[in-house]
Design brief:
By secondary structure, the chain is an all-alpha fold. The chain has one domain (4-347). The protein has 15 helices and no strands. It has helices at residues 9-29, 40-51, 55-67, 76-106, 112-124, 130-149, 152-174, 179-185, 197-209, 216-240, 253-269, 277-288, 290-306, 316-338, 342-347. Helix 4 (76-106) packs antiparallel against helix 5, helix 7 crosses helix 9 (197-209) and helix 10 (216-240) runs antiparallel to helix 11 (253-269). The relative contact order is 0.16.
């Protein structure tokens, strides 16, 4: 048995928390476009959706902790054969599975157009599988980023670039503020510190250098971020009478605040030094299945929808957490079953 003192158990807990948050996000978002903006159900869905927008950024930050440590030696051969290969195969397996289901339900008779659509679905992947493309891209630039994280000052400079070019400029661009200035700044063609790369590096940086003594700080800033996200989305959506997702984006201020707060809280205050071996093994079990739960949880949502059970079936404030728990438990059970298949066990 792997002894718990040799693992960062807080990141196992964080993976579990984040994967359940992803499930909540997709359950809450499933019907938000089917109800009027400013209705009771819409506000409930928006509140839940806003509160868990940290999930994917924090997953990326966790990866940064383990992959961007300059002391961890990973050859290019191992990077591609051990890590990137696994992601690509998992993507193809589940992209085909989702493609078969969605194509079969959309067409009553076989046609060559159906085959074309199916192939496109495999290449693109189902809506949540965009994350697989993201992870492959981050892994590909990991050897370059490790040269940056080897130096604290260079890391801080890179994070500053990420803040400016990866958060502030895209956010202002979305809001159509200072458009003339923003369009000219884009001519600098600085593309590397954009998207999730900042979160990837930030995870390593916070884990290595940042220490906060009071639990209240990350809790307070998380709540501020959640309120900013929910209220801003409501205000922006009211203007066009259709949901606006600008404040859901990873570079939005509220999402950034929540992501930082959740990551810091778990990594510094949930290290669980007194966990029993039994508790530790349960945590590890749930953490190991987080990746597969991510891949399969949309199946659970599709099955519920197929039976006519959605977040509109009963009071939304109860429907979102209850159905999220049902989807999570179904996905966990399916993950355990898939892990019994020899080849899949190596991939998942």
């Amino acid at each position: 048995m792997v002894k718990k003192e040799y693992r960062l158990i807080q990141f196992d807990l964080l993976r579990i928390f984040c994967i359940f948050s992803v499930v909540i996000l997709h359950v809450a978002a499933n019907q938000i476009r089917n109800v009027p903006v400013d209705s009771y159900s819409w506000h409930v869905f928006n509140a839940f959706d806003s509160a868990v927008r940290f999930a994917v950024p924090v997953f990326v930050m966790i990866s940064g902790v383990f992959f961007l440590n300059p002391q961890k030696k990973i050859s290019l051969k191992d990077l591609y054969r051990k890590y990137i290969y696994r992601i690509i195969i998992a993507f193809l397996i589940f992209s085909v599975a989702y493609g078969i289901i969605t194509t079969a339900t959309a067409y009553e008779q076989f046609s060559f157009g159906m085959v074309k659509i199916f192939i496109k679905k495999i290449i693109k992947g189902h809506y949540h599988l965009w994350y697989m493309y993201l992870i492959v891209g981050l892994y590909m630039v990991t050897p370059i980023l490790k040269k940056i994280t080897a130096d604290k000052k260079i890391t801080e400079y890179f994070l500053l670039l990420c803040l400016v070019f990866g958060c502030i400029i895209p956010f202002l661009d979305d809001l159509k503020i200072l458009s003339y200035l923003i369009n000219n700044i884009k001519r600098l063609q600085i593309y590397m510190p954009v998207g999730y790369i900042g979160y990837y590096v930030l995870g390593y940086y916070i884990h290595t250098y940042i220490r906060i003594s009071k639990k209240s700080f990350p809790i307070l800033f998380y709540l501020i971020g959640a309120v900013i996200t929910a209220v801003s989305t409501w205000v922006a959506s009211m203007g066009n009478n259709v949901i606006s997702v600008i404040f859901y984006e990873e570079y939005a201020p509220g999402v950034l605040l929540m992501s930082l707060s959740v990551f810091i809280f778990f990594q510094q205050f949930l290290q669980c030094p007194n966990c029993s071996d039994k508790t530790y093994q349960r945590i590890r079990f749930l953490s190991r299945h987080a990746f597969t739960v991510y891949l399969v949880h949309v199946f659970g949502i599709m099955i519920l929808n197929g039976f006519g059970l959605t977040t509109l079936s009963f009071n939304a404030i109860l429907a979102v957490p209850v159905l999220s728990l049902v989807v999570y438990l179904f996905s966990l059970l399916l993950s355990v079953m898939l892990s019994k298949i020899p080849y899949l066990k190596k991939i998942l």
